[in-house]
Structure formats: C-alpha cells, structure tokens
Design brief:
- This protein folds into two domains: about 250 residues, von Willebrand factor, type A domain (Rossmann fold, 3-Layer(aba) Sandwich), CATH 3.40.50; about 40 residues, no CATH class.
- The chain is about 45% helix and about 25% strand.
- The chain contains nine helices and ten strands.
- The strands form three sheets. A six-stranded mixed sheet has the order 5-4-3-6-7-10, sandwiched between helices. Strands 1-2 form a two-stranded antiparallel ribbon.
Length: about 290
C-alpha cells in the first residue's frame, strides 16, 4: 500500500504534466519523434500518377492489369525511459529534489507517448538494474512508472551508467526513442552510449542543482558524497576554493556536452532552481524545426 503522501504526489504530477502535454506538446510529439518508417498497407489497381516503382509485379501478372503496393507510415514507437535512481537524486537546494524533477519528466514524456498510442518502457538503475518494466501502453502503466521513480527504494546507491546502457543494448533490440534521465555523475560510459545511439534515437536529459556547480560563501561546509558517503570539510569563504570548485564543475559540464555532440545525440539540461516546462517545450520546438528542414 502506497503512503498517502506519495499518492498525492503522483496525482499532482499527473494533473500538472497532463495539462502541459495537452496545452504545449500535443502537436509537437508526433513530428519530433517519428515512427520506424513505412509499412505495407494494401494492393490496389494502378491509377494515373502512381509511382511505377511501387508496381507489384506478381499481382500484376496474375490479374492481367497493373497493381501497386500502398504504404502508410508505421507510427507506433517504443519509448524507453532509462532513469538514474542513485542516491545523488535525493539532492536539491532550491525548488525541488532532482528525483522529483525526474518523476515529472518521466510523466510528461510517458503521457505524450501514450497519447500517440506509443509504448513506454522503464529501466531504473543505480550500480545495478533496479527495475525493468517492459514497454506497454496505457495510463495505468504510466502511473506505475511515476510511482517507481518517487517511491521505489533502490538497493544500490552509486551510479553505473555503463552497465545500464549495456543492459539497454542487450534487451531492447527494436529501434525506439531512449531518454536517459540522470545527473551524469558517472564515468566510462562513452562506448555503450555510442552503441545505443546507433541503435536508437537517444536523448540525454541532465538534471542538476546549482550547488553542484558553485559554492556559496557561507563559511565552513562539510560536503558529503551522497553515493559513497565520503566527506570533506571546505572553507567556502575562501575565494580560491570557490573558484576551483566552479572550474571543476565547468570542465565536467563541457566534457559532457562535448561527448553528446561527438556522438550526435540531442541533449537537454534541467535545473532544480528553475521551471522545466519552458526548456522542455523549447527543446521540442527546436528539434521539430530541425527535422522539418
């Protein structure tokens, strides 16, 4: 039985994200994420203007008159949410915790998918695969995904994105759209990410908190790594310390962005101190414009 607080959170997320889907994203999703191609629909008699390359010679020879194959867009997609549920997600110093934003993004993407009759799958990972929900349709399935992100207690605390991507590459053989939702505080995942990008349409969504990029000048701070438990005492009043911390965070960000560009995957960064709806809508718009050229 889920606690009442979690049920209320799930309901709030459902209402908020459903409204955003209906108001802002309903017309974008279909054009932004295409189906797998064209599938055969029927054979009909040739009409003036038909492409002669679609002639079905077997049927034509049997019927004694030209017939053509008709194709339609194969619309149905498999959408896979690969979500980092390691301990670093339980961090947030502003509007929300990173895990709460992850849950809302999962809901938004999943509701957009089911409105277009696409199937949604879900893989939650830490240093192991915590949950694997095979792609399915329907609102109940989406609500289960939201509950898993919010309420599920993972066994692991650290992040192994390499392992998660290797699992994805083994288990999801049908081409689909893969959203990787993480803070990307991980190492050595370039090779399986390249493999995933060749097989799927991959979108990387990074969720960060401003205190992961700069330190406030408030005095002595004991910083703890949420995943390993390691602690370090720093004097945030020291300008050199703050500068070094900011430089390290900037280098990490640039390395991540450079990797995504090299591999050729779309990327979006969301922050806990800012609303995510406008950046997400802008991302959909930009991608739709690019694909329409």
């Amino acid at each position: 039985m889920l606690p009442a607080e979690i049920l209320r959170k799930v309901r709030r997320i459902e209402i908020r994200t459903s409204r955003l889907v209906n108001e802002s994203l309903a017309g974008e999703y279909h054009s932004v994420f295409k189906g797998r191609g064209m599938e055969f629909s029927e054979v009909r008699e040739y009409q003036w203007g038909d492409d002669v390359r679609t002639l079905d010679w077997n049927v034509t020879s049997r019927m004694g008159a030209p017939y053509v194959k008709k194709f339609v867009e194969e619309r149905e997609l498999t959408v896979l949410l690969l979500v980092d549920v390691s301990a670093s997600g339980d961090f947030g110093t502003k509007r929300q915790f990173k895990r709460e934003i992850q849950a809302e993004i999962c809901a938004l993407l999943a509701f957009s998918a089911i409105q277009n009759s696409d199937r949604v799958g879900f893989i939650a990972f830490t240093d192991r695969i915590e949950t694997f929900l095979r792609p399915r349709k329907g609102k109940d399935h989406v609500l289960r995904v939201i509950r898993e992100v919010l309420y599920f207690t993972p066994q692991g605390r650290t992040t192994d994105l390499k392992m998660a991507l290797e699992h994805l590459n083994r288990t999801i053989t049908k081409r689909g759209v893969v959203f990787i939702i993480s803070d990307f505080l991980a190492h050595d995942f370039e090779r399986p990410l390249r493999v995933a990008a060749r097989k799927h349409d991959v979108v990387a969504i990074t969720v960060t908190d401003p205190r992961e990029e700069e330190l406030p000048p408030v005095g002595l701070l004991e910083l703890e790594d949420a995943e390993t438990g390691a602690r370090v005492l720093v004097d945030s009043r020291d300008k050199g310390t703050r500068t070094a911390f900011g430089r390290w965070a900037a280098e990490r960000r640039l390395a991540r962005e450079s990797l995504f560009r090299q591999i050729g995957i779309d990327a979006l960064e969301l922050r806990t101190d800012r609303p995510y709806d406008l950046p997400l809508v802008r991302f959909f718009h930009r991608r739709a414009r690019r694909l329409s050229r």
